[in-house]
Amino acid sequence: MESMHIFWLALIQGLTEFLPVSSSGHLILFSKYTDFVDQGQAIDIALHIGSLIAVVLYFFKTIKTMVVDLFKNKLLPKFNNANVRLAYYLLFATMPAIIIGGMLSYFGMDWVRSAKLIGWMLILYGVILWYADTKFKANKDLTDMKLSEALMIGFAQCLAFIPGTSRSGVTITMGRILGFNRSEIAKFSMLLSVPSILAAGVVAAYMLSKSEEIAQIMMAYQAVAFSFIFSFIAIWFMMTWLRTKTFLPFVIYRIILGLILLADAYNLI
Known about the structure:
Blueprint: H1 3-16, H2 23-33, H3 41-58, H4 60-72, H5 82-107, H6 115-135, H7 147-157, H8 167-177, H9 182-210, H10 214-241, H11 248-265
């Protein structure tokens, strides 16, 4: 695998992980419609680790405050503290994805790596995102969140195991349905990526440490670095955009890309 291949993968991962357009779907399509070989799970996880570092740095103040308050309260779930409450809500919301993801990895997920399926998911969840973004009142922030709402967002996240759905897209959609404003639910969605990516990163790091292939380890480092840069740019753009704008451009992009994929899959072009 060449450095340019890693660069393009990191560009796709970084710019799509936190935008509601499906990073996993784009990565699958990249390997499907180019001459590059499939990058494999280790590089996929390395790309996500780069995104994780970007989230941690961008929201460093929020994460630091949560960690400090957690230890001040001896890791007890004292929900009268807003920072402790948010930390536990993120943890609880992650549990469904860990459980369901573990089950799906046991049975295998090769059947979902289909351009036709990705096309349908891009369109379907794009329309649902548009509906949720325009038809529901959204005046709540994260201090208003209840445990039941965090769990609903966590279960919605599990839909993203199907490429083309978008992890950020479905969590933001559920948040909008529940009445949270755009920037606040985008922040929760990004923070929600931290526990699951961290868990996957630990496993990947262990696998790479056992590998004697120096080239693979170096490629993983490159993937982390490039992905971090592009992910940070995407987070900054997303949080800035949502202060005054809607999700409509992302919905339009999803529908156009979905239609192109379906036209190709059904041999219409």
